[in-house]
Amino acid sequence: MNKIRVGFGFDVHQLKTGHPFVLGGVILDHHSGAYGHSDADVLLHAICDALLGAANLRDIGYHFSNTDERWRGISSLILLQHVVQLLFDKGWEIGNIDAMVCLEEPKINPHIPAMKANIAKAAGITEEDISIKATTNEKLGFIGRQEGVTAYAVCLVEKEPV
């Protein structure tokens, strides 16, 4: 019987006017974007944390510190590739990823196919094994005021017993 684990990830980033908005490896056309040490891709960061958590490999900050200049401005797709390699090195395979982005604007539905393609390529899984959804915060709180964006992700990983 295969060993199965579930992981959960969450990330939040501040939005800043004139900054690029990268989500799922796609640059969105918007007046503001997520700010952070890397490209601040909140969706990929939540997915990385879910995968790391499922494999009991700590968290994204442990592996990619925001004080390490190697990671400044880097594409989070590269971070995801590193995370997937860490899982593979421990014998884990990704079953599926389910993610939710919470923001008021921009609408991401037209970009979901490109995001899924990017994630599938970086993670070595099929697009059918990736779900990306979005919701608003009904204009409440920092998300409603468009001051920030959050993402949540869950994943399933499995490996054969030794």
Model description:
- There is one protein chain.
- The protein is α+β, with helices and mostly antiparallel strands.
- It has a single domain (3-159), classed as 60s Ribosomal Protein L30, Chain: A (2-Layer Sandwich), CATH 3.30.1330.50.
- Helices cover 29% and strands 33% of the residues.
- The strands form 2 sheets. A 5-stranded mixed beta sheet has the order 4-1-7-5-6. A two-stranded antiparallel sheet has the order 2-3.
- Helix 1 packs parallel to helix 3 and helix 3 runs parallel beside helix 4.
- The model has no long low-confidence stretch (mean pLDDT 96).
Instruction: Give the overall shape, derived from the CA principal axes.
Output: globular
- Mean of pLDDT: 96
Biggest sheet details: 5 strands, mixed
Helical fraction: 25-40%
Secondary-structure topology with pairs:
Layout: E1 3-17, E2 21-23, E3 26-28, E4 32-35, H1 42-54, H2 60-63, H3 76-89, E5 93-102, H4 112-123, E6 130-135, H5 141-144, E7 148-159
Parallel strand pairs: 5-6
Antiparallel strand pairs: 1-4, 1-7, 2-3, 5-7
